[in-house]
Amino acid sequence: MRLQSPQFQALFTPGLRSVAEMFEKKNYELRIAGGAVRDLLSGMTPQDIDFATTATPGEMKEMFTSAGVRLINNKGEKHGTITARLHEQNFEITTLRIDVVTDGRHAEVEFTTDWEKDAERRDLTINSMFLGLDGMLYDFFNGYEDLKNKKIRFVGKATERIQEDFLRILRYFRFYGRIAEQPGVHESSTLQAIKENAKGLAGISGERIWVELKKILLGNHVNHLVQLMYELDIAQYIGLPLDRDLDEFARVTKNVQNLCPKPMTVLTSLFKGKDDITNLDLRLKISKEEKNLGLFLMKHRQELTKAMGPEPLKPYQDFIMDSREANTNSKICELLKYQGEDHLLQDLQQWTVPSFPVSGHDLRKMGMSSGKEIGAALQQLRDEWKKSGYHMDKEELLSCLKKL
């Protein structure tokens, strides 16, 4: 097939046209690769575009340098990737490769001009396609058919692909949550290959696992996929607690649908105690902000709830007003998502945190001089202000002070 969609046509910026002309002049083949092809075939505009070529890194460097094109970020060169900058746009172009040696984490590569050999070393069929700049699709493993049928399959034998890089187990789950329409539609041979190789995840760095896990937590079918991780003995190798609360997880994943939660908001529902978050941090090296959010949600998920009556949001507002931390508001928003309080979340997001209208200076003008007396009076007024729902103004509060 030949693709000519508006999303595809929009890729042809002055920069890409210049790059295409250079490669054509030298008779090097250049095609769009991987995820960008998948997105274009799905009618989406890709966020990142990777290119593949028959030119070696040395040939690309010579071609770009002689044309006066700036090259940036030479870290990828040993893996065959050259990044050129034209017309304020970066182009990441990688020489076709085959894996010579793999250890489940890294691969030693050899360059090739065989497009099928390069496709063969990729993880999933939907990520193994190429798209020519004329719109021609090159699909060696029925990736387009799988994409249309919302099917996630490894290229070739699942066991071989997984053993090349054990992180592909989590990539399988991530793309299942992104592409598949229904939970539970897996090939039994794929699940068997995952289970047999789950232990390989123990050797993958926590940072790489966390990147994939966060995307899984924000995708579709998350409840099904996390339950499956436990069934396939994956959880223990990626920092998830063995003593988990899958009922709470099921409840919370339902609560947060369409509320754009943070990954930690979803994940905390699995945890029963602080040790679970400590162990997760030890394995995955989560950020301080993520760890603090998890501890906050665990501490307040049951005790901080809406009030009965006409002001259900008030306990949350009081908590924010009493807090001395800068990001309490965003943590409370995540708590409301966790609890499934979407209406209260909307109300809180529209609420502007009010400023207490009385200062020590106001009380000194009333004749108070003792710091202790002023402090006590301010606290009394703050309590009255809170009772009023933060509506009383300065005059009302000061007249209230005279009566106290």
UniProtKB/TrEMBL annotation:
A single GO CC term for this protein reads:
mitochondrion
**Residues covered by the tRNA nucleotidyltransferase/poly(A) polymerase RNA and SrmB- binding domain:** 187-238
Which family does the similarity line name? Belongs to the tRNA nucleotidyltransferase/poly(A) polymerase family.
Protein name stated in the entry? TRNT1 nucleotidyltransferase
Signal sequence, start to end: none
> Which stretches are annotated as coiled coil?
none
**Superkingdom classification of source:** Eukaryota
Q: Which Pfam families match?
A: PolyA_pol, PolyA_pol_RNAbd
For this UniProt record, the keywords arranged alphabetically read as follows: Magnesium, Metal-binding, Nucleotide-binding, Nucleotidyltransferase, RNA-binding, Transferase, tRNA processing
Tell me one GO biological process term: tRNA 3'-terminal CCA addition
Which GO molecular function annotation, any one, does this entry have?
A: nucleotidyltransferase activity
Q: Which cofactor does it need?
A: Mg(2+)
Give the source species. Answer: Probosciger aterrimus (Palm cockatoo)
Task: Pinpoint the Poly A polymerase head domain residues.
Answer: 30-153
